[in-house]
């Protein structure tokens, strides 16, 4: 049974609801609507609200292409006025302020929302006695297109989605105490594109002090590009809209474009860029020399990131989902992988890159047709994760994991522990409705146990403790020397700690950071 609950914070008085002993406030606006003449402009803080604000329903989600694999939530409405957040808290009061976990959803910087049923924080809040905040940010061209160089006279801003997240984190610092949260114990966590935002935040100087711990799940940490490439993508987007960049009226035309036309053009660019430039994303944060002065992977590899403790990891079979969905995002075929290596060599003159023969030594025991999956998984996720772990461990404590568990049905259809399959375990939401086939062939009891352990580890970390779970092996911090060098927690039916789990991979690929500018 649901009841109402009201909280007064600096930003206003918000009426939420109580369900299953968890309080929630939904759809709280943290920024002005990025519409009209605010489109492609920096977010501005929402003014403090007058009266009592109804916060019982999720706010609109950012307009995006339809993706059946990413349900946005029952009754979800798409609107550019999407910059809202949601707060979840235990019903009972606490003698001290609770730790706060701020979630950044994934979706290739193009899809998703904070209202996805998967991110219902009831289980996490109940199990971990934490406050959870889930955030909307602008997506696709609306959030990651940088028009400032393609149309320099248009007054457009860049890195909009990253700025949205920073503004949301500032809102948390100012307001979360009213919801029972501790603003000095904020953990930012995210998966896939959300994980990429987490690792990018670690290299963003102005983010210092806005969070105190970080969890990056399957972060494409090296998929952040420079201004020259951002201009190339912007010109391609303008072309899809039928706008010539050198047209004096181009700025006016792009501002006047309908949101439907923008989403359609975004979808075409989203599919085209990784097809023509394998291994890259159309939309991602931009190294602009200002908000983001340097490539995050370079900053973190050298141990110069914001020195907060970090949990980081990947899934065993990241790329199988992209192959299954025939997604253009990750190169799988030998031809596209060869092109990717050629492109990296062209963009890195004088840099000694690993040879194809050297790289293939890491896949000597892999079936031939699975080599492409392995290369795609490793260059997209696992290698950047190793680079971040090695570098950031010089600045702060790091724990490295790999999620290996797959329900019998997922193993049967060849997905295994693929991209995003850890999410239901982290959130304690293992079944997403009556048509969910995940446990069709069994495995639910084991999944419940794994989920309980992951919830315990993630929330213990947010409290400021080591990420431990009862009855499991100790998870040593990652370090590059000593008897337990490069310790990795392998999460499966029975958790295990393996030292230098990816040693063969690390040696085959070498020490060079592989990136696109």
Q: Topology, please?
A:
Layout lengths: L2 E7 L2 E8 L2 E8 L22 E3 L29 E7 L7 E7 L17 H7 L2 E5 L4 H5 L15 H16 L5 E11 L1 H9 L11 E5 L7 E2 H14 L9 H7 L2 H18 L9 E2 L8 H6 L8 E6 L4 H5 L9 H14 L8 H5 L10 H22 L5 E6 L4 H5 L10 H5 L16 H20 L23 E5 L4 E4 L3 H7 L8
Parallel strand pairs: 2-4, 6-7, 6-8, 8-9, 9-12, 10-11, 12-13, 13-14
Antiparallel strand pairs: 1-2, 2-3, 3-5, 5-7, 14-15
Which terms summarize this structure?
517 residues, single chain, 13-stranded mixed beta sheet, 17% strand, globular, alpha/beta, two-stranded parallel ribbon
Summarize the amount of helix as a percent range: 25-40%
Radius of gyration (Å): 22 Å
- General form: globular
- How is the biggest beta sheet arranged? 13 strands, mixed
The span between the termini is 53 Å
CATH topology: Rossmann fold
The average pLDDT value, as a whole number, equals 92
Structural class: alpha/beta
The CATH architecture classification is 3-Layer(aba) Sandwich
Number of strands: 15
Describe this structure in words.
The chain is of the alpha/beta class. The longest helix has 22 residues, at 371-392. Strands 1, 2, 3, 4, 5, 6, 7, 8, 9, 12, 13, 14 and 15 form a 13-stranded mixed sheet that branches. Strands 10-11 form a two-stranded parallel sheet. It has helices at residues 122-128, 140-144, 160-175, 193-201, 227-240, 250-256, 259-276, 296-301, 320-324, 334-347, 356-360, 371-392, 408-412, 423-427, 444-463, 503-509, and strands spanning 3-9, 12-19, 22-29, 52-54, 84-90, 98-104, 131-135, 181-191, 213-217, 225-226, 286-287, 310-315, 398-403, 487-491, 496-499. Strand 2 (12-19) and strand 3 form a beta hairpin. The chain has one domain: Rossmann fold. Helix content is 32%, strand content 17%.
């Amino acid at each position: 049974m649901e009841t109402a609950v009201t909280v007064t914070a600096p930003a206003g008085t918000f009426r939420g609801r109580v369900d299953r002993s968890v309080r929630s406030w939904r759809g709280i606006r943290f920024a002005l609507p990025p519409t009209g003449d605010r489109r492609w402009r920096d977010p501005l803080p929402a003014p403090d609200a007058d009266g009592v604000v109804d916060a019982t329903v999720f706010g609109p989600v950012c307009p995006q292409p339809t993706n059946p694999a990413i349900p946005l939530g029952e009754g979800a409405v798409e609107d550019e006025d999407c910059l809202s957040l949601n707060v979840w808290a235990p019903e009972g009061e606490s003698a001290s302020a609770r730790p706060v976990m701020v979630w950044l959803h994934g979706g290739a910087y193009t899809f998703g929302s904070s209202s996805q049923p998967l991110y219902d924080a009831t289980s996490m809040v109940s199990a971990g006695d934490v406050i959870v905040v889930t955030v909307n940010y602008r997506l696709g061209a609306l959030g990651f297109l940088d028009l400032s160089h393609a149309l320099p006279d248009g007054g457009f801003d860049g890195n909009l989605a990253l700025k949205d997240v920073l503004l949301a984190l500032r809102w948390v610092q100012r307001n979360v105490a009213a919801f029972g949260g501790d603003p000095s114990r904020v953990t930012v966590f995210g998966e896939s594109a959300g994980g990429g935002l987490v690792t990018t935040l670690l290299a963003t100087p102005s983010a210092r002090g806005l969070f105190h711990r970080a969890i990056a799940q399957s972060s494409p940490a090296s998929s952040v590009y420079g201004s020259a490439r951002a201009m190339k993508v912007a010109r391609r987007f303008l072309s899809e809209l039928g706008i010539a960049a050198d047209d004096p009226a181009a700025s006016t035309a792009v501002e006047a474009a309908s949101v439907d036309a923008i989403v359609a053009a975004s979808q075409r660019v989203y599919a085209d860029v990784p097809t023509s430039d394998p291994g890259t994303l159309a939309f991602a944060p931009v190294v602009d020399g200002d908000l983001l002065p340097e490539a995050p992977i370079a900053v973190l590899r050298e141990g110069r990131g914001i020195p907060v403790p970090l949990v980081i990891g990947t899934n065993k079979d990241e790329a199988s989902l992209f192959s299954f969905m025939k997604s253009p995002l990750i190169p799988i075929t030998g031809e596209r992988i060869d092109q990717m290596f050629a492109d990296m060599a062209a963009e890195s003159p004088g840099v000694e890159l690993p040879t194809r023969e050297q790289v293939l030594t890491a896949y000597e025991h892999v079936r031939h047709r699975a080599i492409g999956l392995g290369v795609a998984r490793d260059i997209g996720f696992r290698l950047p994760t190793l680079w971040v772990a090695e570098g950031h461990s010089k600045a702060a404590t790091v724990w490295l994991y790999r999620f290996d568990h797959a329900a019998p049905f997922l193993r049967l259809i060849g997905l295994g522990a693929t991209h995003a399959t850890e999410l239901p375990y982290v959130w304690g939401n293992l079944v997403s409705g009556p048509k969910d086939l995940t446990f069709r062939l069994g495995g639910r009891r084991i999944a419940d146990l794994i989920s309980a352990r992951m919830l315990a580890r993630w929330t213990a970390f947010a409290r400021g403790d080591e990420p431990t779970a009862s009855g499991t092996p100790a998870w040593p911090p990652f370090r590059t020397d000593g008897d337990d060098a490069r310790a990795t927690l392998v999460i499966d039916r029975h958790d295990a700690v393996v030292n230098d789990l990816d040693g063969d991979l690390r040696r085959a690929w070498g020490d060079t950071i592989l990136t696109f500018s």
